[in-house]
Amino acid sequence: MTKDLQLRLLPEEAANDDTLRAVVARETGDAPRALRILKRSIDARQRTVYVNVTLRAFFDEEPTEPLFPEVELRDVSGRPAAIVVGAGPGGLFAALRLIELGMRPIVVERGREVNERKRDIADIVRRGTIDPESNYCFGEGGAGAFSDGKLYTRSKKRGSVERILIRFCQHGANPAILYDAHPHIGTDKLPGVIERMRRHIIGCGGEVHFGTCMDGLLIHDDEVTGITTRTGQEFRGPVILATGHSARDVYRMLTDHGVTLEAKGIAVGVRLEHPQALIDRIRYHRREGRGPHLPAAEYTFVSQAGGRGVYSFCMCPGGFVIPASTAPDECVVNGMSPANRGSRWANAGWVVELRPEDLASFHLPDTGGEPVPEVLAMMDFQERLERLCRINAGQGVKAPAQRMADFVARRNSSALPSSSFSPGLLASPLHFWMPDFITSRLREGFRSADRVSRGFLTNEAVMIGVETRTSSPVRILRDRETLRHVTLRGLYPCGEGAGYAGGIVSAAIDGERCAEQLAAAYGG
Ligand code: FAD
């Protein structure tokens, strides 16, 4: 016999399998042989925090159905090839789906494999160097590899989201992602998952080429028939282009080829870091903090200021702020967390929506760089701000920072609080050198968050500059149905870099969709 129960529990009652079994025995009068959690979420809206758990209790026998289906390996060695450029979530999930559909993916990735990438990332702090081909944005696993691995998305495509989560589990992710309302994997677990995906692709007869940067498209009669690489190779086949939002050379190459792009808005701001204990106190309404049974608290804030959205972005509870530049003359920050979200800090991007037409309303000093066509004006702005940020960081690996309340009061910070940002912080008046278009709205956004959550606006928090890589500054136009580029057959712009995704899950969903459309046209 099985019974499904919807429970509203205190954190200590939902702490583990034993405490849950005790609750089920209390509720049903019978001790279960096994439990399977179907849904779990935290409700911290009231003074008392509850954990809502939906579970299935098994009383007579253990469950026979597996949590998720086994991964199916299919030999695609002799099958038609498709080129996948980029091994981020978009590219990897496209490659895995191509295999399911009987095509042979050839994945071309400019960066190194995920474990070698760890060394390049460590070198950013150890040697103060950024490898432009292997860093927090480039390399196997893409921008999502060293992240919080948050897997929630605003996508309404429930079935597709579930498929992606199952795919992660098939490659070693914790099955809790299937039932948690806010699933995440963690930066310490993601590389193993990504490595298993690569082994899967190669094991089925696909190819993965690292250190191989695409530098051109082969185009004949309005059809993309392959790519060229900086290593002098040519790969032939239709192309899924999943190069992410940081591959500025790709956008430049596309405009040189006359490929149709359109300018798109982005969001720009800073990383804000609080002590996690302070966020726990605010979110869980408890002076004593979260206690042993609740996870590091999260937050999301959204408001409007001066006609533009101001919002928190990509929050990393119990995480670290990291240097996410892709070139040595930039300063860009982002965030990541381990699976246990156990650090002393809570960080999140705080960004202001910026539309292409807004660029005319302020001016950034010329910090060098090549002139770009009009369609890349937003990308040019990102680059300029990142270079300006590095100048304000003293041209080293440190990042410029200011205490939050000082920023709101337009006051310099004489000393900074301790931070998770391991390259180090340099006190800097962000209110002074960042465009007023952004700083005035951030100020409003912080005040608005503090009205909802008293104590949020505090000098215990520090703002670190700059957060610019939030989404793609252009969209590579494609047909809504076939997902093919609007003028070029054989080209499938995919994922975040093409302007059709924001985050790991939505990039993965888009990768699968592009693979399906490509296979329908070229699968034979
Ligand atoms: P990317 O992941 O950017 O992958 C693009 C790949 O293409 C890269 O591997 C790159 O090296 C490769 N490439 C680029 N140019 C070329 C070329 N010319 N030739 C060959 N290869 C090329 N999202 C979440 O949902 N949850 C999170 O917790 C989260 N945390 C993040 C933390 C950090 C530090 C960062 C930077 C991003 C985070 N994101 C997070 C965003 C998320 O990572 C991206 O939305 C997602 O990775 C986009 O997937 P993608 O495949 O479209 O592109």
From TrEMBL:
InterPro entries: FAD-binding_protein (IPR028348), FAD-depend_C (IPR049516), FAD/NAD-bd_sf (IPR036188). Residues 266-470 form the FAD-dependent protein C-terminal domain. It comes from the Bacteria. This is FAD-dependent dehydrogenase. It comes from Tannerella sp. oral taxon BU063 isolate Cell 6/7/9. The lineage of its organism: Bacteria, Pseudomonadati, Bacteroidota, Bacteroidia, Bacteroidales.
